[in-house]
Structures are given as C-alpha cells and as structure tokens.
Amino acid sequence: MINTVIFIIHFIFIFFVFRTKYKNESISSAFLNFALIIILFSIGWSLSSIIAKWIMEPEGWGKLFDRDTFSLSLVTIIEFFFYRIYYKPDIEKYYKKVKTEI
Question: What is the pTM of this model?
Fold first, then answer.
C-alpha cells in the first residue's frame, strides 16, 4: 500500500513537471525532464536498496513496511530535497504566472 502511494506521488510529480516545462519552455524540454526524473528514480532506488540491505532484514519493520518500502521511502525523501532545489526557479515562475492570471 505504501509502495503504491509512493509511485502515485512520483507519477503526479512527473505530470506536473512535464506540464510546467511544456508550457514554459518546449516539448523537448518536457521530455528531457521526464527522462531525468525516471533515470534518477531508477538509480536512486537501486542505491537506496543497497543501503536498505545493510540496515534491515527483508521482512523490514512490519507487514506494510518491508525493505523495499524502506528503500522507496528513502529515495523519495532524498528526491524531495533534490527536486526542491533543482526546480525551485521553475516553480516560482509558475506560481507568479498563476497569481497574475487570477
């Protein structure tokens, strides 16, 4: 269940970034950012799985929070801070544009 929520959050984020880049820049920029997010997620999940393997057993900390869920949570937290820095100018520009339209 937690894994599903994490994947849905990533899907919504990809959609938001794609739409924002498409409106503000171009379709090629939107696809490049789409690919960047997918690649960083894949590599981050692989690396966080290695870290999770060192920290815990496959059963994890319960039925709903196993080792895979821990690694997905870890990569999501790291991505949150990275993307907050990386996309900050785009998000600020988007909200300025939305405020002026209202």
Answer: 0.77
Q: Phi and psi dihedrals of 79, rounded to 5?
A: -65, -35
Terminal-to-terminal C-alpha distance of the chain: 38
| 97: Cα within 13 Å, side-chain hemisphere | 9
Read off the pLDDT of residues 73-95 as tens digits, 9 standing for 90 and up. Answer: 899 999 999 988 888 877 777 67
Q: Hunting for tokens 């600020």 — which residue is that?
A: 92
Q: For residue 78, what is the enclosing H or E element?
A: helix 67-86
- The string of pLDDT tens digits covering residues 32-50 is 999 999 999 999 999 998 9
